Amino acid sequence: MYLWKELRLNDSLERSLRKLEEEFIHSVAEMITQSILRNIRRFSREEVEAIISHIQQDPHIINYYTSNVRKSQGFS
Predict the structure, then answer these.
(1) Cβ–Cβ contacts within 10 Å for residue 24, how many?
(2) pLDDT (0 to 100) of residue 34
């Protein structure tokens, strides 16, 4: 996933890639936030705490989610 970081790139290209990566991360965070906000009335306090606990115990779930988002947007 981070293969570009292993390459020797000129500074301009590296800055561009870092900016795109940052924008993508913020985009995914915004999508997750909006999804939670749209569904927040459906979750009880216990359910929200369980979701947060699950993410804290398995942070790779975010990687799984972002991977699926990238695929749905046409990225591999």
Answers:
(1) 15
(2) 85
Burial class, 17, CB count within 10 angstroms (exposed 0-12 / middle 13-18 / buried 19+): middle
Domain count, the chain: 1
d(CA 54, CA 63): 14
Nearest of 55, 75, 52 to residue 63 by alpha carbon: 55
Residue 3 in domain: no
Q: How far apart are the first and last CA of the chain?
A: 9
- Enter the pTM of the model: 0.44
The residue segments making up the domain with residue 30 are 15-72
Q: Is the dihedral of CA 16, 18, 23, 28 positive or negative?
A: positive
